[in-house]
Amino acid sequence: MVGTTAPEVSAAAAAGPAPVKKSESRNLNFFYGQFQALKDISMPIYEKKVTALIGPSGCGKSTFMRCFNRMHDLYPGNRYEGQIMLYPDNTDLLNRDVDPIEVRMRISMVFQKPNPFPKSIYENVAYGLRVRGHTRRALVDDKVEEALRSAALWDEVKGRLGDLAFNLSGGQQQRLCIARALATDPEILLFDEPTSALDPIATASIEQLIADLKEKVTILIVTHNMQQAARVSDYTAYMYLGELIEFDVTDTIFIKPKNKQTEDYITGRFG
Amino acid sequence: MSDATAVKVREIRALIARHKRWDIVFGTIGVLSLMIGVLTFTVLFLDMLIDGAPRLTWDFLTSFPSRKPGQAGILSAWVGSTMVMIVTICAAVPLGVGAGVYLEEYAPKNWMTDLIEINVTNLAGVPSIVYGLLALGLFVYQFGLGQSVLTAGLTLALLILPVIIVATREAIRSIPAAIREGSYALGATKWQTAAYHIIPYSLPGILTGVIIGLARAIGETAPIITVGALTFIAFLPPAPLQAEPPFISFEWLLSGFTVMPIQMFNWTSRPEAAFQSNAAAAGVVLLVMTLSMNALAIYIRYRLRKNIKW
Which candidate from A108, A113, A118 shows the least CB-CB separation from B308? Predict the structure, then answer.
């Protein structure tokens, strides 16, 4: 392994089978032009677990997440240093030779505000399949249904797949975006503050969904809500000013964090 | 209520009344400025309508121009205008939309792109006669397209190209970043994102630009005269659809032609008063052509926008 190793998880994690690394950030630095937004971040993402990124506004948690699907490549002046490895095939997602489109085909993302396309419910979910060139009607139909079921939306929309996505409620729109992301069987699903635009009931349903989804897919979630991180995640990383302060099992982070800064943030003395 | 409060309330009301005076002043100025525009247009239009009304008959639309004002019509002019507009649309829309999408979605953000951007915007302000001279040199002499419908259509296409490019870019910029990111996040290429999302969602805005451009183009006289439109023409170009195979003919593209504003100009420069009412009637027809194009655009835009909310 290159550079410093990822922080090891405390003994509390030892219970149960050892988690498998799905991905790993190694000495990741990220620059918006001259400004360094991420400083030397190394941490693992475990397979079929939920990893939460927490920290005050501007700490770089969203920036870090958007490195995983190379979203920063869409805008000029952004630069990565270091590696994000994807296992088991040992692909470095940040390598110049790796096409960002390939990365995005393997890693899906759900955004902060629901962003359905102004098309039908069906077309929204089918879009990822269309991008991959799937045209066989039966196959697309099956995949759309499967994805909508996984996103716990099927029962609410099955009779009106041709309706415009904008006619759904905010919570339904967000679940539609989750279905859209799931339809292409991603290896990792990124959630960027998925409930910050939703009411408490819709939030609860999304959180339930995340808990169900981790059986199928590895999840990385950014949240500004510490209770949410505590409720949904298995691992938590606390970030501050572009640095990773502490990474551990969620219970450890919230009950007895090793770092004073983490403790101050968790207990509300700071942030 | 204590006296002190009563005094304070009275002061507040006096203050509001004083401030509201400016609302009234500005409101009045606003209504007056609006009226100058609206009334001028209404008076001009009514005057033209009254002058032209006696000539606005079916015969007027279906007759060729003539030396006798009572028998002269605008058949060749409106057919010519329509054909020129068709060529203009076919040339300007794909080029303008293509250029706009390229500049917004594909072009690297550097000084070269900035330079092109500024120049495209400036092109919209170049006098139309300059386009006419360019077209005379390029299309008529260099490409040998002659003084034809095709030449005129391409000339006007050049003229409105910057308008369409700018409108396309504005429309694309109004699409939220979240929608674009949503498409890219699913592994779409630039072309897939443009074809599935960017172009369809910016169509209403593009359409507005196309109509503004066409409304300008249909009234243009100078560049059309420069490329050599005829002022007196008593025949129609060959029909695009024919009875014998191959049924479709493109000969009309290379035919001589005239357009509505030239016909009007021709009539207004005649000494006989009767020709003046012909010109007025033609003006009414030209205005109706423009307004119905606008109406169509507004309708289509409304239909397209119904599904798009942001």
Answer: A118
